[in-house]
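Hello everyone,

My group is preparing for a crystallization screen and wants a predicted model to guide construct design. The compound we'll soak is flavin mononucleotide. Before spending weeks at the bench, it would help to have a computed complex in hand. I've included the protein sequence and the ligand's SMILES below. Output in structure-token form would be ideal because that's what our pipeline reads.
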Amino acid sequence: MKGAIFYSSKYGSTEQYANWIAEATGLPVFDAIEGNGDPSRYDFLVLGSPIIYFRLIIRKWLKEHWAGIAQKPVLFYSVSGALAGKKLDGWISKSLSQDIVSKMHVVNLGGRQIPGELNLFDGIMLKVAGLFNPDREAGKQESKGFDLMDKDSIEPILQWVRQISNKVEVA
Ligand SMILES: Cc1cc2nc3c(=O)[nH]c(=O)nc-3n(C[C@H](O)[C@H](O)[C@H](O)COP(=O)(O)O)c2cc1C
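Reply:
Good plan to model first. Here are the tokens for the complex, ready for your pipeline.
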């Protein structure tokens, strides 16, 4: 009876959270897009993805693998600049079907964006988006970057893993 972590990450912060969760729980960790793990082999799953341009980058992988995952306990963590709230919930619902979202336990974590690390396209897009965003706080974040990474924020995920592991062992 075992669980695993599958994540997708563009600039490394979602991967960092996956590694922190792996260190604290002992669960194996896989880069979903590299495709070197099979989620259907595990009893429960922790999945993670950032929001990039208003969408979860793991959405295609998750839809493709959902048939083999749907019956298992799944915790999903999103990583983003936006804080937990309606805007973020809306992007998550638009990335995945309502059926998928309703079956997962969702946790929202703060991400990191360092302007000097962005590729040329993303750097230009975020500068322009930052200039025109009517929400000036979000606009400043977009153009100047931010670091909301917080190791302690994985605690609810660790609690969920402990609970599920106990249930699975008892079953
Ligand atoms: C190109 C790009 C687009 C982004 N779009 C959004 C967005 O639409 N909404 C949001 O809240 N954060 C957005 N972010 C912030 C990311 O979610 C944040 O930087 C996250 O930590 C990136 O995860 P990663 O390091 O695992 O790739 C964006 C970041 C980048 C680089």
